[in-house]
Structure prediction request, 80 residues.
Amino acid sequence: MVLSYEHVCRLHKKITGKTIVEHLTETRMAYATHLLATTDMSILEIAMEIGYNSLSHFNHLFKKYYNISPNEYKQHPDKL
Prediction:
């Protein structure tokens, strides 16, 4: 049985209620909060670790997702 990419995407959305990209972003952001709170890695290192090649794109998505910048979160991880 071979499933097309589009079919897999539709099935994922039907089962989880989220697109694959939304699921991946959620997973990446959760891992980013963990790294920000528990390591001394720079924000750039964390962005690269979770798969973002652009620091500005990571900063934008993090702020959109949590309404706080990665730098603010790193300084005060209890804000979420």
Remarks:
- Residues 22-79 form a domain with the Arc Repressor Mutant, subunit A fold (CATH 1.10.10.60).
- The two ends are 44 Å apart (CA to CA).
- The first helix runs from residue 5 to 16.
